[in-house]
Structure formats: C-alpha cells, structure tokens
Amino acid sequence: MILSNTEMIAGYKVTNHVGLVQGNTVRAKHVGRDFMAGLKNIVGGELKGYTELLEDARKEATDRMIADAHSKGANAIINVRFSTSAITAGASELYVYGTGVVIAQ
C-alpha cells in the first residue's frame, strides 16, 4: 500500500477513486507517564513516554486506515492527514484519513 500526503504519486496514474478511508484510536495517559512528565516539566526535555504513546497511536490508526482502504479495493491512499482531539481529561483521539485510490503505472 502506497501512502502519500500529496494529491498524486509520481510515476502512477489514478485509475479509480474509492473515496474516504480512515482509521482512529483513542488513547489514555498512563499514571506512570504522567508522573515522569511532571518531573520533566521541572527540568525540561523530551517527554519520551508521550512520544512513544503518540508513535504507537499513529501506527495503530494508520494500520486501521490501510485496512479500510483494502476493504474498499484501494491499493494506495493519497492526501493522508492526521488529526488529534481531546475526548476527556487524560484521553485523546488520533484520527488519520485520506482518499483511497487504485493506481497503475
């Protein structure tokens, strides 16, 4: 599956448009990560626990979007975008979406 954040993929022609494809996940903060983040707020630096949490969430949401695209017959996704939103205190949704297409060389 080819993913692109552009409207086209160089060297390929879109032969069919299958529509919106999407994936999401909702993740909650971990108490241990919150404690370590509080300490980092004092001394500064990267919040590695949250970085890992977001990396995992992006991968899971992207995998779900790819599965949605496969189920609709797409072999590529163009115009891929990510979005986040707060669901409740301590939990956020990561949403990824794009346009499922069939491409050929």
Task: Describe it.
There is one protein chain. The protein has one domain: Hypothetical protein apc22750. Chain B (Translation Initiation Factor IF3, 2-Layer Sandwich). Helices cover 35% and strands 43% of the residues. The chain is built from two helices and four strands. The protein has helices spanning 31-43, 48-71, and strands at 2-3, 13-28, 76-88, 91-104. Strands 1-3-4-2 form a four-stranded mixed beta sheet. Strand 3 and strand 4 form a beta hairpin. The mean pLDDT is 87.
Strand portion, in percent? 35-45%
Structural class: alpha+beta
Strand order of the largest sheet: 1-3-4-2
**How is the CATH topology named?**
Translation Initiation Factor IF3
What's the number of extended β-strand segments? 4
Q: Output the number of helix runs.
A: 2
Average predicted local confidence, pLDDT: 87
**What number of structural domains do the residues give?**
1
Helix content: 25-40%
H/E topology pattern: EEHHEE
- Name the CATH superfamily classification: Hypothetical protein apc22750. Chain B
| CATH C-level | Alpha Beta
Bulk shape: elongated
Q: Please report the distance between the alpha carbons of the first and last residues.
A: 14 Å
Please give the CATH architecture: 2-Layer Sandwich
Major sheet summary line:
4 strands, mixed
Give the uncertain stretches in residue-range form: none
Indicate the radius of gyration in whole angstroms: 17 Å
